[in-house]
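Sorry, explain these tokens?

***
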Amino acid sequence: KGSHRIYPFWPDNVRLKTTPEEGISGRTVYCGAGEIEGLPAKSLEGQIAVMEMSSYRNWKTPFSMGAKALILLSDGRDEVLLPEEQPIFKPRFYVNDQGLSDALRKNSIGEITLHADGRWEKQEAENILVLIKGKQDLAALQPIMVVASYDAMSLVPQLAPGADNAVDA
């Protein structure tokens, strides 16, 4: 009961994972690993599917059975996957709160409303080139690249694991 923090996933091409102002409402339906054989197909129509993050590769299946949105739950062993670009909007969200995750796994929450808002911001970045002069003739040496990340990548941008390193650059 009450409000809980959820995180939108990586955008679908350029479409951010936002919801309409009124949100996306439905009953939560736990789908485990999202394998087609174990899904409660009839009960997913118009509802919000809930799956384990470790089964992320199966995320399309609940949508094909009529789910309006998908919540993926952390099990503490979330695998790192590259985002899959989609030409259409599929609202996907992530929960890392263990108490909320456990309640969603037990189907004990019922009806919920998801709210997510976001906007693109234009940002400028610069490349910085470094020349390290040594005692030897530089033409005879192989080039050396110095790299400092200034951004971080994650399926859940707000929880990017390298974000602290990016800020430190």
